Amino acid sequence: MGESAAPILTIKNLNKQFGSGCDQCGSRAGRKLDKNYCPACGTVYSCQDISLELYPGEVLGIVGESGSGKSTLMRCIYFDQEVTSGEAYLQAYKEGRSNLFEESAQQKRFIRNHLMGKVYQNPVMGLRMQFTSIGNIAEKMIAAGNRNVGAMEARGRELLDRVYIPVYRMKEAPKNFSGGMQQRVQIAKALSNNPPILLLDEVTTGLDLSVQANVLDLIKHLQRELNISILLVSHDLSVIRMLADRTMVMLNGQVVEQGLTDQILEDPQHAYTQQLVHSLL
Ligand SMILES: [Zn+2]
Predict the structure, then answer these.
(1) Each residue's pLDDT tens digit in the chain (281 positions)?
(2) How far is the CA of 25 from the centre of ligand 1 (A)?
């Protein structure tokens, strides 16, 4: 990652709230929240003024406990959820000059299909469990405008091979696979249109430790091979430590600390980060 390189993805002042707010929480300045919600009206402020930059070939980790807003942030970036306010720019889209959140539904679909891939914690969110594995990959390629069956099959075989799914099982449905294999099919599907950015949301949570290690190894390997940029969300600092160049720490909808992962691990500044780091030892 060169210092002078332009970010591939820029997020500015992203806000996501659930509820319409009240006199006591309407403006950010005087807002008094209990964790991330307003005790007066119950509005939840899941993401508060989140800004970030993701650079070419970089892995940016976002760590935080459940309710920190990290997964909501990912859902907003992938348009699974609408933001309350904020801006997002992709270098590969209109030369980074158009706020993605203001684009039409059709353009958002284009961006999702061509420029981003997402892997969900729950494979049911990312896969059609009854389709064949290669059919899942073809589905994403068709959504991006591919029509050549032979080319899609060749690409599907190549991708399944890359994630170590034996080609003789390509016609099997993910519902017959183990949790680790399902995540690997999701990764293959997310990569199918060669997106410059991969979004990974708690992708190894719930897997056995040995399986977790295999999936993380695979991600690391693919990242290096493809030089893809990754936004990685996890509650587990050991996952972040293994993969992320830089790390953002989220708590109650806010970024409380960010920096190079090594620095954060060696010298955590915020009390919450200190607690996370100490729990690793
Ligand atoms: Zn309120």
Answers:
(1) 445 689 999 999 999 999 999 999 988 788 889 999 999 999 999 999 999 999 999 999 999 999 999 999 999 999 999 999 999 999 999 999 999 999 999 999 999 999 999 999 999 999 999 999 999 999 999 999 999 999 999 999 999 999 999 999 999 999 999 999 999 999 999 999 999 999 999 999 989 999 999 999 999 999 999 999 999 999 999 999 999 999 999 999 999 999 999 999 999 999 999 999 998 87
(2) 4
C-alpha–C-alpha distance, residues 42 and 45, integer Å:
10
Q: How far is the CA of 228 from the centre of ligand 1 (A)?
A: 41
For CA atoms 140, 145, 148, 151, give the dihedral sign.
negative
Domains in the chain (CATH in brackets) are 9-280 (3.40.50.300)
CA of 35 to the centre of ligand 1 (A): 13
Distance 40 CA to ligand 1 centre (A): 5
